[in-house]
Amino acid sequence: MVSVALALILAILSPCIWGILNILDKFVVDKRVKSALGFAVIAGCVNLAIGLVLAVFLKWSGIAISDLLFPALAGMVLGSQFILYYKVLQKEDASNVIGFIYVYPIMVAFLSFLFLHEVLSLAVYLGASLIIIGVILLTVHGKKIKLHVAIWTLFALALVVALNEFFVKMATTELPVMNGVAINCIFIGLVIVPALLSRRIRSQFVSELHNAKWALLNETLTFINIVIIYFAMSGLPATIVSSIGAIQPLAVLFIEKILQIFGIRLTHNGSFASKILPLTLIVLGVIIIYSQELMGLLT
Predict the structure, then answer these.
(1) How far separated are the first and last CA of the chain, in Å rounded?
(2) Domain coordinates of the chain in residue numbers?
(3) N or C end of the chain, less CB within 10 A?
(4) Model's pTM, two decimal places?
(5) CB 102 within 8 A of CB 163
């Protein structure tokens, strides 16, 4: 377990690095990759290799098979996201995709109310309202510019993010951080690699092998992010890490804008000005939902 101060620094660093990775992913699938499915399988293989290499150098004595459950589940849900994520990112702006994903705190609050009978506070209702307004504005914007993916796919990505963060937090209570990271990476690959049983995907996989260097670069960043989030979760409540992580959509949006200034255009759907308000509402909504936990940390 790391100190609260270090965990807080890592929690702030995480959405910034994730934002850089989202933009890099968008660049690769937009400018280099023809088959998102084929590239996703290559990315899965890279994660599997990273996890196996890391596992060789770690101590596993005293660790029961049951202790591997939560990092394995975290890896499985993240791996299941890969194919959908790359397909969506190939058609939509990174800022739109990440903005929609941050409806997941509403899902967490609803599930807590439904299954844990938790009483929802006024802050939750206010935050959820802001998130919903932000998503509606993005949706209206998307309809205007003919959003190329079904809304349900974006909400599916949000659900995967929520489950992944929950399983990562549980993993940090059962295993040393790096052991959890190794299992997480291994299961990302184990979920994706069976896609090679499909002849069509095998063909796409082979056709994208020349992009393996990009997969190695992207998934090295993914590995770094996974390490950061595990250490952050080991020192802070999951709600705090999630609320700080809410700045990711804005980080992505500003990186898109900076690249555009330098002549690198990775956006197709609308202007910076049309996205800043809905994404800001989503970020504020997430922070308000977790405001009590944030105040508790500061005091």
Answers:
(1) 21
(2) 4-298
(3) C
(4) 0.80
(5) no
pLDDT tens profile 276-296: 777 788 778 877 877 776 676
Is residue 245 within 8 A of residue 15, CB to CB? The reply is yes
Give the tokens for residue 289.
């939902």
Tokens encoding 211 = 């992009």
Token code pair at residue 45: 């293989």
Q: Render pLDDT for 5-60 as a digit per residue (tens, 0 to 9).
A: 888 888 888 888 888 888 888 888 888 888 888 999 999 999 999 999 999 999 99
Residue with tokens 């804005």: 250
Residue 118 near residue 61 (C-beta atoms within 8 A):
no
Which residue bears the tokens 């049309």?
274
Spatial CA neighbour of 99 closest among 153, 158, 149, 145: 158
* CA-based radius of gyration for the chain: 19
